[in-house]
Design brief:
The complex is a heterodimer.
Chain A: E1 23-32, E2 35-45, E3 50-54, H1 61-69, E4 76-81, E5 84-85, E6 96-99, H2 111-121, H3 126-139, H4 155-167, E7 173-177, H5 185-202, E8 205-210, H6 213-219, E9 222-227, E10 230-235, H7 237-242, H8 247-252, E11 257-270, E12 273-289, E13 295-298, E14 308-319, E15 323-330, E16 333-340, E17 353-358, E18 364-367
Parallel strand pairs in A: 3-8, 3-9, 6-7, 7-8
Antiparallel strand pairs in A: 1-2, 1-4, 4-5, 9-10, 11-12, 12-18, 13-17, 14-15, 14-17, 15-16
Chain B: H1 8-32, H2 49-56, H3 58-91, H4 97-104, H5 112-126, H6 132-156, H7 160-168, H8 173-202, H9 205-210, H10 218-228, H11 233-256, H12 258-262
Chain lengths: ~375, ~260
């Protein structure tokens, strides 16, 4: 699954063994005529785990989610939940909760009726329905609004109703289809922690589709990065960020410096520069260096032994509160460097001569794309 | 509806437009209170005699009742047929669905006189001329395209995610339709129903072909009446129809909101 992983990236992604997950996707495939939307995906999710499907639009993440919910028929492979093969089971018998980007509340029902819908479908006694609706409405902090219609609530409130409606049936798996995309930035951050907190409190297994890397990084136990219908990497947020398995993951998750060069053992020539990596390679390679892994010092500083060291001139300095971003020209290359702002730390203005240093292990090396 | 200032020219244009639309009513209402035996505007004397005359004109009353029943039956059957048909065409999107929709709405493109002539030929052979059944079928043919079109449009604007949400919550396809799709279609059904009722109630050309000495609709009877006599009776009937329509509109508006029904 992880192609061309550099050597120090062998840290196994935490998670259940193949085929052993509470939710297990085995060779899941979706084909539309000639187009492969999802190509033989294998994924195992443990009970109570929060897993994000992250990728650009059109990467197949939403199709995967809709296949799991049963809203899109599969073209191949299996969907197994708690040992039970659900591949051919219709959506209304799958016992899953789905929260949509568009909220998808029933416009002709009150909030209480919306939340009660799934319980009525399960033919629970009236008393129990009332109690569980009240509990779910309280959980998403919408007490007192039970008799309103969805159109009378704000977007954030509507999405909380959708969350309560999906949660109240205690689904085997909670599926989220970009649920925060229609909310404004501040509300989105509140909802992130609210969803995460409720999911952890109830111990519900959750799969969360998003194209927003911050969302995936801050909410998930593990992240599945997808591209062109395939899984690029599965891992904990820190694995993905610090040890991206493919150039695609390095580019998609977080900011990065990208260079192309030629490797001879651990030495890589980037134009006139020679830098060292911790991995052995030979031939044309793609090199990525995270901007926050590069340290910036006044020119002439003697770097510690074993570090890569490059001298250059600051071309542009951008202050953005919690960090400062420098663009540094060095031997025909431009490095992006990010330093956290510490108190009244000095900021190097444009034109300053500087020395950049970073550890060989932070030089991520990938086989050049053919 | 916002508070932008309206230019005087726009106001004048609007007033002219309203005057043009309301002109027939402005003529007909005074005429209906005429005391004369002939239609003449303005009337030289005033009375309620032509309203009283309606009550004594059995043919007119029978035609009114028949029109009412016909429009009601046509509307009911329209909805009964169009709702499932529109659902199948829009949601199940069968192969050739567009062609089917085109076929079903084709009568809208034909001049009613052509339709009427064709029906006259077919119905006379089948012995359906001047029968309630024949009239019913004729009206169904001209109203169904409207109903189907309006309901299909209403259905295609409904967000499918809402139905999917119901399915994931455990509702079977039949339950989804009954508890979610159908209630959301109500405004579209009211619009379609009102339209088919009005089209049927108003239909003259086809009804002329289908009617006979024993059976006619209100518009046909009014037409016959004007042809034979020039008294203001039809003006009184017209005023009653206007009042009847207004009351219906107000009732629908008060109970469901007409704006919601027609403007989506």
């Amino acid at each position: 699954m992880m192609h061309q992983a550099p050597t120090d990236m062998t840290v196994a992604a935490a998670g259940p063994r193949a085929g052993q997950g509470y939710l297990s996707l085995q060779g899941l495939t979706k084909r539309y005529h000639d187009f492969l939307a999802v190509e033989a995906i294998d994924l195992d999710v443990a009970q109570g785990e929060f897993v994000a499907l992250l990728g650009p639009s059109g990467c197949g993440k939403t199709t995967t989610l809709r296949m799991i919910a049963g809203l899109v028929p599969t073209s191949g492979g299996r969907i197994v939940v708690a040992g039970q093969d659900l591949t051919a089971v219709p959506p209304h018998k799958r016992d899953m909760g789905l929260v949509f980007q568009s909220y998808a509340l029933f416009p002709h029902m009150t909030i209480a009726q919306n939340v009660a819908f799934g319980l009525e479908m399960r033919r629970l006694p009236r008393m129990e329905i009332a109690a569980r609706v009240a509990e779910a409405v309280a959980m998403v902090r919408l007490e007192g609004r039970e008799d309103r219609r969805p159109a009378q609530l704000s977007g954030g409130q509507q999405q909380r109703v959708a969350l309560a409606r999906a949660l109240v049936v205690r689904p085997s798996i909670l599926l989220f289809d970009e649920p925060l995309s229609n909310l404004d930035a501040k509300l989105r951050e509140e909802m992130r922690s609210e969803i995460r907190e409720i999911q952890q409190r109830l111990g519900t297994t959750a799969l969360f589709v998003t194209h927003d890397q911050d969302e995936a990084l801050t909410m998930s136990d593990r992240i599945v990065v997808m591209s062109h219908g395939r899984i690029e990497q599965i891992g904990r947020p820190e694995d993905l960020y610090e040890r991206p398995a493919t150039p695609f993951v390095a580019r998609f998750v977080g900011r990065t410096n990208r260079f192309t060069g030629n490797a001879h053992g651990t030495t890589i020539r980037l134009g006139d520069l020679a830098v060292r990596a911790a991995t052995q390679r030979s031939g044309p390679v793609e090199v990525m260096i995270r901007p926050h892994r590069v340290a910036l010092a006044a020119a002439g500083c003697v770097p510690a032994d074993g570090l890569n060291s490059v001298t250059g001139i600051v071309r542009r300095t951008t202050y953005s509160g919690d960090f400062v971003q420098y663009l540094v020209d060095a031997d025909g290359l431009t490095f992006m460097v990010e330093e956290a702002t510490v108190g009244h730390g000095r900021i190097a203005p444009a034109g300053t001569a500087v020395t950049l240093t970073w550890a060989p292990a932070d030089t991520l090396v990938y086989e050049a794309a053919p | 509806m916002d508070e932008r200032p309206i230019s005087p020219i726009l106001k004048i244009l609007a007033a002219v437009g309203f005057l043009f639309l309301l002109a027939p009513v402005l003529i007909v209402v005074p005429l209906s209170f005429s005391g004369e035996v002939f239609m003449a505007f303005p009337p030289e004397s005033w009375s309620l005699r032509w309203y009283a005359a309606i009550a004594e004109n059995e043919k007119m009353l029978a035609a009114f009742l028949f029109s009412l029943k016909l429009a009601t039956a046509v509307t009911a059957v329209n909805l009964f047929v169009a709702v499932p048909a529109a659902y199948a065409l829009v949601r199940l999107a069968p192969r050739g669905g567009d062609a089917m929709m085109g076929f079903f709405t084709a009568p809208l493109l034909l001049p009613s006189i052509v339709l009427g002539l064709a029906m006259l030929i077919v119905f006379s052979r089948a012995g359906l001329l001047a029968t309630p059944q024949g009239m019913f079928v004729a009206h169904l043919v001209v109203t169904l395209p409207y109903t189907l079109r309006v309901i299909a449009t209403a259905l295609s604007t409904l967000p499918i995610a809402v139905e999917e949400a119901a399915a994931t919550l455990g509702a079977s396809p039949v339950t989804v339709f009954r508890r979610v799709t159908l209630p959301m279609m109500v405004p579209g059904m009211i619009a379609a129903g009102s339209l088919s009722f009005l089209v049927s109630f108003d239909e003259v050309v086809l009804s002329l072909f289908m009617s006979g000495p024993r059976l006619s609709t209100l518009p046909v009877e009014m037409y016959n009446h004007v042809e034979n006599r020039a008294d203001p009776l039809v003006a009184a009937v017209s005023v009653l129809l206007v009042v009847f329509t207004l009351v219906a509109v107000v009732v629908v508006d008060r109970s469901l909101g007409l704006a919601k029904t027609f403007v989506r």
